[in-house]
Structure formats: C-alpha cells, structure tokens
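Ticket closed. Logging final result for Restriction endonuclease.
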Amino acid sequence: MMKTVKIKKYSGELQDFDMNKLINSLRRSQADENLVQHVARNIVDQVEEGMTTKKIYQMAFNMLKSRSRISASKYNLKKSLMELGSTGFPFEKLVGKLMEFEGFNTQVGVIVQGDCVSHEIDVIAEKENNHYMIECKYHNSQGRFCNVKTPLYVQSRFVDVKQRWKSQVGHDTKLHRGGLYTNTRFTTDAIQYGTCVDLMLVSWDYPPQNSLKARIDKAGLYPLTALATLTKTEKRQLLDKGIVLCKEVYENPILLEQLGINESRQRKILDDSLKLCSAINTLI
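Final structure:
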C-alpha cells in the first residue's frame, strides 16, 4: 500500500494523490489497458510530496506520447481547448460543428434583433421545431470557472431575442431555448440557475453523460491543437487561417504543404488527424 502523498492543485490547494483518479483519466484517452497501468505505476514511483498536478499531468502526457500519440492527444484534450487562442471564435466554431453533428443547421457569430436591442449571438442552431440561441464562454487558462453571472446574462439576452422570434411568422409552434457552452466548469449555483430557467448547459464535465469532452469524443471533432505532431507555431499559423479542427487539416492537406512541412511529417500529421476524427469514444 502506497503512502499518502499531498499534491498541489492549480488553485494552490493541497490534496491527496489518488492513483484511481489518475487511472480513470488515462482510460479516457482510450489507451490500451497495459499502457494505462504502465503509466500509472511510473507516476506512482515518481510522485513526490508537494508535486503539482500540472507536473503529474505533463509526466503522464509525455509517457503516453512516447507510446501512443493518439492516446496522448485525447488525454490532452482539455489543455488543447485552452490553446485555441485568446479569442473565443475558434471555440464558437467548434461548438457550431458539434451542433451540426447532432443534426442542427447552424450559424456562427451572427447579429440577431431582439425585442429591445440587437445582439451578437455566438451560435444559432435549428433542427425541425427546435430553435436555439447559444452563447460560448471560453477560457484559455486553468482554474477558471463559469459562475452564475454568465447564465444570468445569457438568459436575459435570450428572453429579449425570444420575444422577437415569437412574433415572427411560423415561430408560434417552435421550441425556443437558450444555451451556454464553456470549456471549463460551472459552479453549483450556475447549474442551479441554468436548470431552473431551462438553459441548455454544457461544460467540460457537465452534463455527466453528455459533457463537452463526451460530445467531442463521440463526434471525433478534435481541435487541431490536440495534434502532438504539430508545433505550437504551426498550430497558431493554422488557427490564424481560420482552421480549427483536425478534420479540416485531414481534408485539406495542402495546408501543411503551405506551412513548409516536409512530406514525412505531413504523413504523420494526416494519419493522426484521420485517427482522431474517425475514432468514436463512448467513455465518459
């Protein structure tokens, strides 16, 4: 039985190192069980009193990457989302694509007239009689939470837009609903309020069975920042061109040639992109 070791979270708070928690996070990468156990044992042997969760995460990622780039990319998904840049637009595009995968027709970054004022809406999604107005709250650093102020703000905008929509021809039978996506986590009161007013809430780990990470896994819509075969500079250059998904990289290989990437690396990048966007993961 291993001794209790205190490790430091991003917040600075100390907590007991939990090997089972580490194993569960590794399994979500869809790595082979032998590899999961191998990485976990190595981490246990190296973890020290006061070591940061960031350090442990990086150790696990590097071990996975040395044996399976695809598993490493999946393990690194949360961080990859935070590497989409300082603006929220790439995340909005990703959310729009996730909604399209679920059968919605979407528009990203549109101006919508409300009953009182006009609003710039991140994603408008329509499917049959369902008409959604979705706002995206993006954070590019660890330790950030989406508190109750955000769903309060989203709901007030939605109410204004909904009043205008209801006055339009053909909208009297439609289900109008507001929604909020975030790449981090909701606070308890944010979930309580959002549930009370029937906002569609999606965060990194909420709802438990259909969270953001679960939706990305199911759709195979990984951000290009998840690719372990691209450098930070190359990722930034692609994002600057409006490219966000691994799927887009695979479908447009000329993009890699334009970046001056040699043929050998191009093949690795395209192979990883294909595997990421074709693999369906049902694990939560």
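The domain at 220-278 is CATH 1.10.150 (DNA polymerase; domain 1). No further action required.
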